[in-house]
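A.,

Following up on our hallway conversation. Structure tokens first:
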């Protein structure tokens, strides 16, 4: 095993660690790891990302459910439309995208490059949110009642994002659960992990009908990520997540800029 591959497998632990600490965010590392460290084609990398994120988040969500930290009503309101969106995007939208996606004279934008550019933009948005660390106030929604209708619409949008780039969207889910469902931050993080788990598995199911995963690679990577989420959930009791999220945000920003510069060159 090369040093590059060892680095890639070690990064799997970081993916789980961040999900355990913040309820999301680690998933936006999986696609760059698969593409640039393991040289996996972009579309297949998004498929692998869905499985890793789904499995890791599922393990974490079971622990949260056991300790009754998950809000099941908010989960249903957000997740049902999100499931539909992520499944349809993985089953029909991503396979239907033409390759090349755009061509004008000598300029050619391939399907893989377009997905990576979109992914990098999402990473920059996520990094900005982590660095600023602007968390909404805890407590009930502004009108005193959970806004389940708005949650459902947000679920549709996050499902499309998850299905397109293979990221769980936790950095979007957590603030929406606080603002629209009135959940306290720890409960929003726990609920977000469950939503990410099911969202990712639904997307993966939409993929395996036309993809044959390499389980000899995927299962060990996922196992290391699961170890990471246990470390993250344990560390969350002692380490201020805001400071870690800010540092992680800068790291994500650097990775996003690297992706863009590499694709341009």
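Then the amino acids I'd put at each of the 265 positions:
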């Amino acid at each position: 095993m090369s040093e590059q591959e060892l680095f890639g497998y070690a990064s799997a632990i970081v993916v789980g660690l961040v999900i355990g600490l913040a309820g999301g965010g680690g998933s936006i590392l999986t696609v760059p790891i698969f593409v640039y460290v393991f040289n996996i084609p972009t579309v297949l990398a998004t498929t692998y990302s869905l499985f890793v994120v789904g499995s890791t988040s599922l393990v974490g969500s079971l622990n949260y459910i056991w300790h009754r930290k998950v809000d099941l009503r908010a989960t249903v309101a957000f997740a049902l439309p999100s499931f539909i969106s992520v499944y349809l995007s993985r089953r029909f939208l991503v396979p239907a995208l033409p390759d090349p996606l755009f061509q004008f004279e000598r300029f050619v934008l391939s399907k893989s490059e377009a997905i990576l550019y979109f992914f990098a933009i999402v990473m920059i948005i996520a990094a900005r949110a982590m660095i600023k660390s602007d968390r909404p106030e805890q407590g009930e929604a502004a009108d005193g009642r959970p806004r389940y209708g708005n949650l459902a619409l947000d679920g549709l949008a996050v499902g499309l994002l998850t299905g397109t780039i293979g990221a769980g969207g936790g950095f979007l889910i957590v603030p929406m659960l606080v603002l629209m469902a009135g959940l306290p931050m720890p409960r929003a993080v726990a609920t977000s992990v469950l939503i990410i788990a099911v969202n990712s598995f639904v997307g993966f199911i939409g993929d395996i009908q036309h993809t044959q995963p390499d389980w000899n690679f995927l299962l060990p990577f996922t196992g290391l990520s699961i170890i990471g989420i246990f470390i993250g959930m344990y560390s969350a009791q002692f380490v201020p997540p805001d400071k870690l999220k800010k540092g992680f945000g800068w790291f994500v920003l650097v990775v996003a800029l690297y992706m863009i510069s590499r694709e341009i060159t």
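Residues 42-66 form the longest helix (25 residues). Curious whether your intuition agrees with the design.

B.
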